[in-house]
Specification:
With about 150 residues, the protein is an all-alpha fold. The protein is about 20% helix and about 0% strand. The chain has a domain of about 70 residues: Flavocytochrome C3, Chain A (Flavocytochrome C3, Chain A, domain 2, Orthogonal Bundle), CATH 1.10.1130.10. It is elongated, with a radius of gyration of 25 Å. InterPro entries: Multihaem_cyt_sf, NapB.
Length: about 150
């Protein structure tokens, strides 16, 4: 009797597994990437850099500024950060680039540093290039109202 119960449970498990697989195959999930994950992601035909001069308006307070240029060939890793070749406080003036916020030179305890803090080293964890592209998903986001001053 135990064998028949085990055989029934095994058969039920197989049927549920096959049924689940069949249901999952009906609605093919489409990735937002056009390329396989292990390959470089090419820009689609709808992609174009924002043609607006200067900085784009921020949608909420404390939003990190968008990057107004391509960073496709920039090296940002533990040894090199090419953003700093223009935006570090020691070079920004001569290069005509915006300097990093002072908050990027504070350690976790709030102490001022002469170099960028390790927690702020990887720029593209907060900053992204500005581009005029269609939304990947529908969105009802509305920017916050301007702050009223008295």
């Amino acid at each position: 009797m135990k064998k028949s119960v085990l055989a029934g449970v095994a058969a039920l498990a197989v049927l549920v597994g096959i049924g689940g697989f069949a249901v999952a195959q009906q609605d093919q999930v489409k990735a937002m990437r056009s390329d396989p994950v292990d390959e470089l992601n090419r820009l689609g035909p709808d992609f174009k850099w924002a043609e607006k001069e200067g900085r784009m308006q921020r949608n909420y307070r404390q939003q990190p500024p968008l990057i107004p240029h391509s960073i496709a060939q920039y090296q940002i890793d533990i040894r090199t950060n090419q953003c700093l070749s223009c935006h570090d406080w020691t070079k920004a003036g001569e290069r005509g680039a915006p300097t990093l916020s002072m908050t990027h030179y504070l350690d976790r305890e709030g102490n001022e540093l002469d170099h960028i803090a390790g927690t702020r080293y990887f720029c593209n964890q907060c900053h992204v290039p500005q581009a005029d592209v269609p939304a990947l998903v529908d969105n009802q986001f509305e920017p916050s109202a301007p702050i009223q001053t008295r």
